[in-house]
Amino acid sequence: MHRIAGHEPTYTPKKGIPTVIIVLLAINVIIYAVRFVLPAGLHEGLIRFFAVVPGRVASTDPDNIMALGHELLTFITHAFLHGDFGHIGFNCLWLLVFGTMMASRFRVETASGLIVFLSFYLTAAVFCGIVFVFASLGENVLLIGASGALSALMAGGVRIGFKRFAHLGPMPAPPLPILDRRVVGVSLVYILLNLSLVTPLGGLVFMTDQPGNVAWEVHIAGFLFGLVTMPFFDSLAGNATRRGML
Questions:
Q1: Whole-prediction pTM value?
Q2: How far, rounded to the nearest angstrom, does the alpha carbon of residue 108 sit from its chain's CA centroid?
């Protein structure tokens, strides 16, 4: 690609679902399908092994490199585990919508864009795992599911106005200000919906008969992470820097 007379070439995102999203969907579905070929006891053991367990994290001997490495790994692996069909179905739909949106924004068809997208997604998963550990310190509960990282993708979508690739002239428009009324409005609604899980209405909001099992604090943490850090990752993808703004 060449620059001529100081003009930036217009970027046109590819149509369809980005390959990285298809791969992530496939990984999630394949891991979930394993439960149907393994004995129940073994499957439950593997889920516990790769989930974030605050009590186990807190009791890990820092001098035990193997154990410490395993616990650190769970801050990523938990995002690829799901409890039931509804859980994985909803998360796959969420990934398809918001993952495609942000993958397009970060230009995942390029090596640098792919690295930025995966960094954003996985860093959000790690951050959510850390928040869960501190929120449930010492408890023998499990955190599984990609909801936290997906909340970050959704927040990124909010910052670009829920567009696959928002343009301003030949280059993408900068993210909406975090205090933009649209950003604030959507953020408040999402946070309040998740806070409803601590009320009797929570089950109706998230269509579950076990609202207490939904990690609402992880959803909120992931969303706030995405809301705040999206411009930084956007600049790494070459969007803000090319426009000379953050």
A1: 0.87
A2: 16
